[in-house]
Amino acid sequence: MHILVAEDDAASRMILEASLVALGHHVTVAADGEAAWRALQTADFDAVVSDRSMPNMDGIELCRRIRAGDTQKYVYFIFLTSAKEKGRIAEGMAAGADDYLTKPIDLDELSARLIVAQRITGVYRRLENQQLEYRNLFENATVGIYRSTPAGKMLRANPALVRLNGYDSEAELMAAVNDIAREWYVQPQRRDEWIRLMREQGRVRDFVSEVYRHKTRERIWISENAWTIYGPDGEPVCFEGTLIEATDRKRAEAEMEYLARYDPLTDLANRTLLKERLEQAASWTTRHGGYFAVFCLDLDRFKAVNDAFGHAAGDLLLKEAALRLKAACRSEDTVARMGGDEFAIVQVGLDDPTEPHSVAQRILDAFHQPFNLEGQRALVGTSIGIAVAPDDGRDPQDLLKKADIALYSAKAEGRNLYRFFNTGIGAKTSRPFPPAPKRRSG
Questions:
Q1: Is 233 considered catalytic here?
Q2: Residue 98 lies in domain
């Protein structure tokens, strides 16, 4: 990746540059926001790692300019902030940043964030390239071209459209297609919408639909541009149009949407989706009553496993932990990875504020079993903090904070147990933690 580092502290700038170069990245450095902005005007970057506080132009303003400008392709933006500036994190994310790190920077964590950045920018690059390819295909007349009747009978089809539908000749396609709406569209009502737009506006542009490859019945996506041919009486005589396959484009868009809402390592919800689910739970409870619970969890002694067995084993542990958490919860609940070994759960539709006890206990029981990490066995527990709405409040962020406070209470009292924010509403649960994992052969 080509990474722009914007950092006014010379020592920090040198460390970041050396570390990123050692990871195989191409790095350009800037001593302030203005210098970084000038660099962005002369070269394409995949990611920007910027200090929040810099002279001339701070990192947040730099991010705003990038998002508002049209000279730079999509660039993944990570801003760096000190612990005392944590209150500015929301401002940075609102400016368009994709992620943040708190100083002092953990280089392993920065490396992990850049792996995600590479995936996301890769999706954007592929989408940009595909869109350029679609334009070139259209200009070179290699797109599908057709003429059809208002009743849905195909009149003409060029070789590209014939091949797209799995046929060898235009005559074969003409004989096979009798009703475009019923035979071609996966959802016939999509054809109804197409007809409505054609009658009202006379044309459609980039009309995206899921259709069948007519002969094989394979489902694909197409993007269609079409216009109406009118007779002397002003009535539609036929429709003409061009279309291209857009399956790769739809997959890329779906992948981008997935990466925006899910953690790519564990397939759990990420912070963005967790926030949405918390807001939905709060709104539902306000309208209909009842309770919902917020769990904050982290893995006890995760670092010991990571250090003993390596990062690959650590990633495998996170994946297995995610599976156990989902198995302990109901399908309507949301399990999210907050980052590192931190997880959160939103338990919805509760009739009684004590119901989270059973889920918390199932989680503890699930983590009592050792993890098999490619031949290595590791005993890893979890500590859990719980807040219940509306007893502990209704604001989603406030509930997360209270669940986090309860989590730290659980860790302080011995780990591998759960605590409610208001400990008076539930019994205290405790169990001893097994010995730290040791490296074993085989």
A1: no
A2: 2-124
